[in-house]
Predict the structure.
Amino acid sequence: MKSREQEYREIFMAEALEYYDAMSRHISELEKDPTDEQALNELFRVMHNLKANGRAMGYADIGEVAHGMETIFGLIRSKERTFSGSLVPVMFSGIDTLGRMIRAVGDGEETADASVLLANLERLVQGEEPILEDDEQSATDEDATRKLELSDLVYIQIKKLDHLLNLVGELIIDRDRILTLSQEIGNPALQSTAAHLFRITDDLQYSVMDARLVNVGSLFNKFPRVVRDVAVAERKDVELVIVGQDIQIDRNILQIITDALLHLVRNAIGHGLETPDVRRQAGKPAQGHLTLSAQTERDDVLIQVTDDGRGIDVESVRKKAVERGLVTAEAARNLDAGAVRAFLFEPGFSMAKEVTDISGRGVGLDVVKLAIDSLGGQLRVESVLGQGTTFSLVLPTSIAVKGALLFELASRSYAIPLMHTDSVVSLWPDEMHVVGGVLMARILNENIPVINLHDLLHSAEDGLLAAASKSDLMGRQDIIIVNYNNRKLGLIVDRFLRQQDIVIKPMSKPLDQIDLFGGVTLLGSGQVCLVLDVPALTRLFLAKRP
Amino acid sequence: MAETESTGEKKVVKQDKLIQLIVFRLGDEEYGIRIEQVKEVTVTPEIARMPKTPAFVKGIANLRGDIIAIIDLEERFKLRSASQPLVGLTYTLAVEAKDYTIGIVVREVPQPLSIPMSIIEKAPEFIQDINIHDKYIEGIAKVDERIIIVLDMLKLLTPEEIMQLQPKSESSSARART
């Protein structure tokens, strides 16, 4: 197993060598046509990236040389220098020096001294003539002995990996089918081949998933700058702490949560953290603290944005929810803080300016929520008034395979993603009560509404569900407790089947219009199995409850 | 010489261009779809009923790894009352609509039929009376004593039209967001 350090160095090397190739190419273009702006811009960009990467990896001298070169290309770009005269050989030797330094890093050797070059670069910046020694000589030496190298790393378009992953998904569905068939047919040779196929596809699946993993740090490391800019704009003093950059997650998942995370961080600085004066008055250190952290939690990745700001005023949110008619005043009074905070994610709720001012939270939190929902993840918020707020994003590591609970309803199989499943219980009818037309079950000191899933799925397009009656319930009821946005809902199903990893295929047109289903999967038996979308199901229940 | 010959041939081809239809029965009439719009014809696979869909959407089925919606055009076009369910063995035409594949369930084995393009007549206006919007009726072909209504699947309903989905407050807003 390679260490992280080594892996980073390999990535640095691959990129640096590519930059080296690019700069060698572009500087030749620039020499032929000193007015070639595209080549100049590329050189500037490549130097800038190399500088940043070099410094991040602790190769200060590479950073130093790249910085000097970048400055001069910047001057050429702003027409303060021209790419001509004595500047040309210095720049060429600079690129050769960078190439030597990069190769030295790759070989694990000390990088050569570049003080002569750096001095010349400095002179050029100051507008003085560089002192050219035997530069011509060394340049030709370099040319003569130069080795051509190919990178150990391959850049690949994420699209290609997506395609690969889709194919693996299809393969797994067929594999499960073959495995089931082989058991039915009972031929030992077929069975052992099927078992082998199972192992290989398993390996293949994890290899493809692994190839898509990137470090959370690749996103997190963009935040120091964001935090600085927002803090300056908001006149806040913020210290950002980043934890767990090494946690790995599927690249597309990271892509999808980028905006959500940006939103949460901006919110935390803009609304969560107080200005230094206010903080001092409240007896807190003047500097606000913001933590971006990632950690693995079972199979999931937990990303948290924590601030030590003013927190969420639950009572204001409660009041607002009643005013907006999301809940009756009576019901609101009985809601616990968590359930009240869940209102912040209601579409439109957070958009209201007043709420933002009162609670100090929430422009577009529903957008964050939707991004997380689309991944089958969970978004939670915890907050202590006056002490701070934590937003937690629970994300799957990979989008390909999801754990799901399979159950039967009207002799058909359905699946519910485990991400949204809280628990499963079997209750006798007399363990449930009808409250206001809705069945309620008391599970672990919590009152949870329970609905017959069949009734909910087949409810009329308009009109509410009929009031629940216990007389419809015969015998023990299998109930799946789902959890969405801190709202728990019990679903009565005919029978629990099993827990299984499933590959979810998106619903094809025109059925993708039905949002109750997040997709379909094919079971080993070849049967089509609908995957329920818990967020949509919860919304349906809220709209239809009697 | 050769040139005139080839143009002459072209003319002949143009006049008598044959098209191949897959002909099937809906209600009491025969309908046809151009063969290039039909992906395959198969015995109807096991259909999983999908809640929250109109009755004429029979559900979804696994057709060689593709999950497609299966619809009953007889019910959609009200050519058969909903109280008469489909019975026994049925067949499914997997048809390429605009940007998706959809399955059309029929009661009898669909048959291929070649007809000259020229005998397809444009549908008269009053065709709307039988509940099929004329925009995807390409025309009507009279073959011997048979009348075949030729459908143009590419102009068939949009997904919204197929699903008969009205913009509903709750579900539509949820849809818009996804």
Q: What stands out?
A: Residues 186 and 267 of chain A are 60 Å apart (CA to CA).
